[in-house]
């Protein structure tokens, strides 16, 4: 810990105490938690939106008007996710859950890395790339069988180009995910907000609802966000893959 900036070292201890003192803790994660797994985020300097205009590639109207074009971006994301492994940040959250110190992870990510790291209670707020669906006839199939050569995949029923079962801009949040996430936000005493710029709603409202219900809000991010200094109680500034394992280490020291 001596190599840490003094402030970060103090905040890591504070976060461990807050986790141990919380009757119910949830986490909200964004693309930043998967950056150390090799998946770029969206809005950092090298993020995906620096190469693809989200209006042209991530809005449901863009998919409906030119699905083959959107699949050019989706294929790049698929390749990155296929070669990605959970990183120490994902494993740290799974360990907190196993210790009975984290009740759920609400994730905006669709990469499935929380589940692969061992997290059981994962609420996929923006859907998941585990399934492909047909907007024309409702057909569904697992995406795991999809190979890159089959992109863009076509519906075997009607020939329409299939869509990953993820939430595009302009689409609703899956009802069950939304209701479980808001239930968590209303009842938790602590929310860890990890690797999200907190600019996309309604996901970004989760920490605000939690705060309004009396919860502490702790951010882990490479940089301050719109929540910092207003909604968040404090920010641990740095890489989640480095900070979260340190917090778990501190927790273990306190309970051993
Ligand atoms: N550790 C911690 N934070 C990190 C790391 C890291 N290693 N790397 C990047 N970050 C931070 C960035 O500083 C940024 O604040 O993670 C955040 C990522 O923000 P975004 O790229 O905006 O991703 P996210 O908040 O998940 O986007 C929300 O927008 O485009 C849509 O549907 C997409 O789910 C996504 C939603």
Care to give the gist of this entry?
This protein has 256 residues and is an alpha/beta fold. The chain has nine helices and nine strands.
Quick one: CATH class of the largest domain?
A: Alpha Beta
- What sequence of helices (H) and strands (E) makes up the elements? HEHHHHEHEEEEHEHEEH
Distance between the termini: 18 Å
* Backbone CA Rg: 19 Å
Counted up, domains total 2
Q: What is the strand content?
A: 15-25%
Which small molecules are bound?
A: adenosine-5-diphosphoribose
Which consecutive residue ranges, at least 5 long each, have pLDDT under 50?
none
Number of strands: 9
CATH fold topology of the largest domain: Rossmann fold
CATH superfamily of the largest domain: TPP-binding domain
Figure out the total of helices: 9
What is the residue-mean pLDDT, rounded to a whole number?
Answer: 95
Largest sheet: 6 strands, parallel
Describe this structure as you would to a colleague:
The protein has 256 residues and is an alpha/beta fold. The chain folds into two domains: 1-39 and 86-126 and 172-256, 3-Layer(aba) Sandwich (Rossmann fold), CATH 3.40.50; 41-83 and 129-166, SIR2/SIRT2 'Small Domain' (2-Layer Sandwich), CATH 3.30.1600.10. It is built from nine helices and nine strands. The chain has helices at residues 6-21, 54-57, 60-65, 67-82, 88-98, 113-116, 175-187, 205-212, 240-255; strands at 25-29, 104-107, 122-124, 127-133, 140-142, 163-166, 190-194, 216-221, 234-237. A six-stranded parallel beta sheet has the order 3-2-1-7-8-9, sandwiched between helices. The chain has a three-stranded antiparallel beta sheet with strand order 5-4-6, with no helix packed on it. α6 (113-116) links the parallel β2 and β3. α1 crosses α9. The longest helix has 16 residues, at 6-21. It is elongated. The model has no long low-confidence stretch (mean pLDDT 95). It binds adenosine-5-diphosphoribose (APR). Adenosine-5-diphosphoribose (APR) binds next to β8 and α9.
